[in-house]
Design a protein that fits this description.
- It contains 13 helices and 23 strands.
- The chain is of the alpha/beta class.
- It has 2 domains: about 300 residues, Metallo-dependent phosphatases (Purple Acid Phosphatase, chain A, domain 2, 4-Layer Sandwich), CATH 3.60.21.10; about 180 residues, 5'-nucleotidase,  domain 2 (Alpha-Beta Complex).
- The strands form 6 sheets. Strands 5-6-8-9-11-10 form a 6-stranded mixed sheet, covered by helices on one side.
- α2 packs antiparallel against α8 and α9 packs across α13.
- It is globular and about 75 Å long.
């Protein structure tokens, strides 16, 4: 059945635009794979099938290949399995994501030196902390010259999401403004492509502000874009004008009259993006189509699957630490996570950012050490501070009303309290109605609040007294699961928005 699905898909790509005289270039793209090493064997099945055809294939990664799988994150050479698998699949090009910096610039330097594929980033200056990366790269395929410009997200901190100390001496500039400076690369290629890790919203701004880019292959926001999204040029479908490509001067849009196509594949290699460009005998791009392939429908390629199993044989991740008596939903895992943080630190209240809880579910049955590290793959530690009710509310409000992919949504999940967010007419948080647990201080008292060191370093809030660092959160999770097994955490919603 899976082989039939793949053959039908390949046939669909080859027949996409019909007929004689046409040639095609296929771009296969991935983003935010986050150490999903098991899925590389299925991606290999797809790329091998496409490469056996007559059309050239370009394989790209839009950043965040790191962090999210203990078998890769805690491998003796941290993150090496991700790079080794990308090398084995013969990636042509990648850009950096924020999670590539999670283990510091020395580890990232080692992994970049391991890679056989080039990495491009235009809005980063290494300043000696990393090998100097090129801002862009030309690739010739199927009679077309592509230029790929790499861009990485930058937050209000002046660098991508993460701890200051992980970025060394690297500095970063605004990705949109940087893209504008490189727009005239359009003069030197047939199609200018932005290979970005800045998120879907920023990709859309890029497409509007810099229409010289004909294609954006994006990441960071984990957005699933099934058929791509066209911006600019007045097009509502994937058929481009037949007027040909500009060969001199900065054109007013990426593909004359055709606008910009934005693509993204979600995360963790559930999907791979396939973008097919069709070119006529005059070297004109007459069609671009984008689609997602559900890799779960494909059989694993045996050689890559064997590599994955070899990587997973390292370490003690298979050791059982407890048992779940039922299927654990995302809400249940959030409650398990934050309860373990509060209990293990003996805090009154604990707060965890939802992005720090990296599993969406766990099946009923044995819970292994590998599951614990998959739930919290970052190596974060607990931090304890004293806060009043007003300071907790300030923290929630500042995050809710911020900009970025977690803004204007519930992000901080509590234990020891619950809260409801009240909005004003503009959709901004006006206040939080909080309900505290039994025996906690009243509204005028102070609470001992536990959080991760990531939240402590990156969220804006005030607190009283010194901050105290505690144990690694993985250690707290393992102790909690062992001490409460068999576990059945509540799936109760602890924070919500009043609509």
């Amino acid at each position: 059945m899976k082989r039939t699905v793949l053959l039908l898909f390949a046939a669909g790509v080859l027949a996409a635009c019909g007929g004689g005289g046409m040639r095609r270039v296929i771009i296969v793209s991935t983003n935010d794979t986050h150490g999903a090493i098991d899925m590389f064997a299925r991606l290999a099945t797809l790329t091998d099938s496409l490469r056996r055809g007559e059309d050239p294939v370009i394989l790209l990664h839009a950043g965040d290949w790191s962090t999210g799988n203990p078998y890769a994150d805690l491998y003796p050479k941290r993150g090496y399995p991700n790079i080794a698998l990308m090398d084995s699949l013969h990636y042509d090009l990648a850009t950096l994501g924020n999670h590539e910096f999670d283990n510091g610039t020395d580890t990232l330097t080692a992994r970049l030196n391991d890679a056989t594929f080039p990495v491009v980033v235009a809005n980063m200056q290494s300043n000696g902390s990393l090998p100097e990366l090129k801002p862009y790269r030309f690739i010739d395929a199927g009679g077309l010259r592509f230029c790929f410009l790499g861009l990485i997200t930058v937050t209000d901190s002046g660098h991508p999401d993460g701890f200051d100390y992980n970025f060394g001496r690297t500095t970063f500039s605004d990705p949109i403004e940087t893209a504008k400076k490189y727009a005239c690369l359009r003069d030197s290629c047939d199609i200018l492509v932005a290979l970005t890790h800045i998120g879907y919203e920023q990709d859309s701004i890029l497409a509007v502000s810099t229409p010289e880019f004909g294609l954006v292959i994006g990441g960071h926001s984990h957005t699933v874009v099934p058929d791509g999204r066209w911006i600019g040029g007045g097009l509502s479908n994937s058929i481009l004008s037949n007027s040909g490509l500009s060969t001199s001067g900065c054109s007013s849009d990426g593909l004359s009259g055709g606008g910009t196509l934005i693509t993204q594949t979600g995360s963790k290699l559930r999907y791979a993006g396939v973008t097919t460009l069709t070119v006529n005998d005059e070297g004109q791009v007459v069609n671009i189509e984008n689609r997602l392939v559900d890799l779960s429908e494909l059989a694993p390629e045996p050689r890559i699957a064997a590599m994955v199993e070899q990587f997973k044989s390292e370490g003690q991740f298979g050791e059982t630490v407890g048992e779940a008596t039922q299927y654990l939903s995302k809400n249940a895992l959030c409650n398990l996570f934050v309860d373990a943080l509060r209990t293990g630190t003996r805090a009154d209240v604990a707060l965890v950012n939802l992005g720090g809880v990296r599993l969406d579910h766990l099946d009923q049955g044995c819970i292994t050490r590998g599951d614990v590290y998959s739930l919290e793959p970052f190596g974060n530690r607990a931090v304890l501070v004293e806060m009043t009710t007003a300071q907790i509310e300030e923290m929630i409000r500042n995050k809710f009303n911020s900009t970025g992919k977690e803004s204007h949504a519930i992000d901080l999940w509590p234990s020891g309290m619950s809260y409801r967010v009240a909005l004003d007419d503009n959709g901004e948080m006006r206040r939080a109605w909080m309900s505290h647990g039994t025996g906690l201080p009243d509204a005028g008292g102070r609470f001992l609040v536990a959080m991760s060191d990531f939240v402590f370093a990156n969220y804006r809030f005030s607190y009283s007294g010194p901050a105290r660092q505690g144990e690694p959160i993985t250690a707290l999770l393992e102790k909690y699961i062992r001490g409460h097994s068999p576990i059945s955490p509540s799936s109760k919603v602890m924070a919500q928005i009043d609509r």
